[in-house]
Every structure is written in structure tokens, then in C-alpha cells.
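Much of what follows relies on a compact textual record of a protein's fold. A record is reproduced here so that you can trace the correspondence yourselves:

. . .
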Amino acid sequence: MRSVYKANPHVLYVRSVHEESEVMSVRNETKMNNKFKDPEFMTAFIEKYREMRNLWKVKHPQYYIKPVRKSTLERLLAFVQTFIQEATVEVLEKKIGILRNMYRMEHNNIQTSLRSGASADDVYVPRLWYFDKLCFLDDQTEARESLSTLPSTPPCTPPSTLPSTPAEADEDQPGTSILEEPDVTIWSQVYYF
């Protein structure tokens, strides 16, 4: 639906209703983002999220049951809508994903600085003010099971009777030790064809 109006008698301006709704949605999203940045709201939101274990705890029995997760998300949405009336489930899922990603990035930065051998003064300090509030997510990142394209054969395991060091080898065990001299006659034979 379009409406045409004249601001200047020489130029026609066309204003689209669709464009106005896009501008309004951008404004609403900005307003919601500002409300999500409020420390008082974020603290309450994180606590409420922490209580709903089936949304974040991978080994929770109801983590993979979609209808249960959806109803839990709707309860969390009802809580969020007391502060932000225009919030939706999609916005809520997006915000949870952003929180989790930000926490994971900060956590990975800390782990990387610890592995690099940095001194205690050089360890990465997280910049998120709510980082400590999300510490319950520490062990919730689960690596996916890898798929192998190789044929499934049992792994080759060396016999348990082999010595762990050459010094432990004694004459009763089959095979040669690394310390023994090789048979020179084998290496000195030359074959001509």
C-alpha cells in the first residue's frame, strides 16, 4: 500500500508503508537491546535462565525434548515480557544465543592465555560484567561425536609383553633389542641382476 503526497510541487515523493514498518521494527529492536543491557534486568534474567536447567544443561533429561523446551522458553518469555513487552520467542532465543557465545568467547580467551604459559599477571581478564554470573555454563559445551570414513577395524595394539625400554629387554624375549649390533653380513651382500 502506497500513499503519494507532494511536499514540493515539482517532485513526487512516494512513501511506502512497508518501509515505515521496517524503521519501526529497527527502533523497537534498538529499544529492546537497550533494555537487555540494563544490569538489574540482566542479573534477574540470568538467574531465571539458570533456574530453567533444561534450556542450558546438556545432560538434563528434558534438554532434547522440544515441546518441553518450548514451554520452558515461553515461561522465560513471560518473565522477560514483564520488563520488555514487545519481546518474542525468536528475540529471546537470539539473546540467549548471544549471551552463550559471548561467555564462550571470553572463556576460550582465558583458557588460551592459561595454556600459553602466561604469568598470573598476564592471564586474560574477561570484559563482560556478567561473566561470573554465567559460570554455570562452564562444562556445558559438548563436542559432537566424530564420524570416521575409515572402515571399522579394531585398532592394532602391541602385545603387552614388549618391554617399555630397551634396558628392560632380556634375552628370553623374542626380537632384537635396539642395543644389539645388526647382522653385518645381511647388509654387506650385494645382488647383481
Summary: The first strand starts at residue 2 and ends at 8. The beta strands are 2-8, 11-16.
